[in-house]
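All the exercises in this workshop are built on plain-text protein records. Instead of coordinates, the fold is spelled out as a row of discrete tokens. Once this layout is familiar, the rest of the handout is easier to follow. The record below serves as our worked example for the rest of this section.
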Amino acid sequence: MKDALVCGAGGFIGSHMVKRLKEEGFWVRGVDLKFPEFSETTADDFVLGDLRDPAFCRSVVDRKFDEVYQFAADMGGAGYLFTGENDADVMHNSAMVNLNVLDACRKRNVRRIFYSSSACIYPIFNQMDPDTPNCTEKSAYPAQPDSEYGWEKLFSERLYLSYHRNYRLDVRIARYHNIFGPEGVYQGGKEKAPAAVCRKVALAPDGGKIEIWGDGKQTRSFLYIDECLEGTLRLMRSDWTGPVNIGSDEMVTINQLADLVMDISGKELSKNHVAGPVGVRGRNSDNRLIFERLGWKPVQPLKAGLQETYQWIETQVKNNSRKDA
């Protein structure tokens, strides 16, 4: 039996990865500051603790795991990352985790480790036009991310690549583009656009309004969690380091995203555009390189993933309403 360590296993992507690895027959240790919020963990061993602490990190990397997945980070949606109020915490916390995890893996002779980077590393000047953003992997330099979160992710990419060169760690790096799905955060300030829109639509009475930050013409692509896991595992088990985009290339405006969710809900709603953090004007996953190197790219339509996500969030909203009643 192979064993795996999942860092950030209490979070959205990490908890789903634990389930997927268990389905494949792995023995899995999960580690995080918290347990998964919406379901019981399926990890064989789940350790609560702070990966910013080097001693704790060494205690959980206590063997030569076959695969290590590093998802742990201080992150959130636009409301958390683009206000500037959380910049110091985002950079400090995430950098400390990556420094500790890498060093602990090196000292245990762990060979293969996956790092989840982000499309936020791409430079602002290539994402000014919402219709033609440039997010090819090679466009990352010269660097000018739109947030400190993006700068930290870019630094950590270089950190992992340095350990790959100097210590021969078998590093794999993916740049995620807006991963969404059931059991993701949908309220509280750290939620991303699909979850936020689903929550707003679920809460709105038929004939009402939902708020959209900005003019809604900013473009993005969104990748359903199952496809994210598939791309991640294919990269992890390939002979290629990356970095590579893992995301959908079905680009939509935020207004179109809202229209899709409203259509799924069956409600007739209008949009009220308000001031708020919106990030770059355009971003889309360029999937040519991943298809060239791995022979794979995501294929599921956005609406299919939104249907699953909306149904789950609608259920959460209804259950919360009953509790408050």
The domain at 3-180+223-246 is CATH 3.40.50.720 (Rossmann fold).
